[in-house]
Amino acid sequence: MTCSDSCSDPNHTHDPHPDSGVDNGYLYGVVDLEKVTALNSDESERASSVIKTWEERNDVAVSLHSDADEQLLLRVPFTAAVKLKSVLIKGGTAEKCPRTLHLYANQSYDFADIENEPTPTQTIELVGNDSTGECIEYPVKIAKFSSCSHITLFFADNYGDDVTQLFFAGFKGSWTPLKADPVITTYEAFANPADHNKIAGTERGMSNLGS
């Protein structure tokens, strides 16, 4: 199945990306690109190569391909707490286009985890692609993706080929900085050595700690 400008499927949209707006912000800037990983990829390209700037979303010069079979798993960490609104996918052409996408919020799963059939946070049926297809936006259930530090995308199958191809994966929503654990420090007005128990192993000085 291909998708054209006349498509009226309510499960995705072809609306252009807005130039600004926190609620609809494109989240490329808070993806930790160095830590993005792909499993069952043929490794001809880096896993993060399909997470591109908005201007590069329809570029087909670079893509990921599955290796042993049609399944492909992409693990994406964020550098902020993300409130996800939608994912954007541009799959390969014809039968190489991924079909079923399982999303797992705040999970960094591998295939061993997937074999245990964990319940996806959301499952999306992706639209087939042709040679002129553009990336398609798929809304997610915002309440289930309200504070994501990372997300796993599991492309479970495709439209019939032995290999799944992925040109682009993107994310839209809003974000807030990750909260650091508070540091609690207690100060003493006047330190009295008699008030403190000696830590075992420190009789010969601090240089012997841990030895």
From TrEMBL:
Span list, region Disordered: 1-23
Family assignment from sequence similarity: Belongs to the PITHD1 family.
Skewed-composition ranges (Basic and acidic residues): 11-20
Gene3D superfamilies on file: PITH domain (2.60.120.470)
Domain PITH: 16-191
Biological source species: Wallemia hederae
One Pfam family matching this protein: PITH
Protein name (Swiss-Prot/TrEMBL): PITH domain-containing protein
InterPro entries the UniProt entry points to: Galactose-bd-like_sf, PITH1-like, PITH_dom, PITH_dom_sf
Gene Ontology CC annotations of this record: cytoplasm; nucleus
Skewed-composition ranges (Polar residues): 1-10
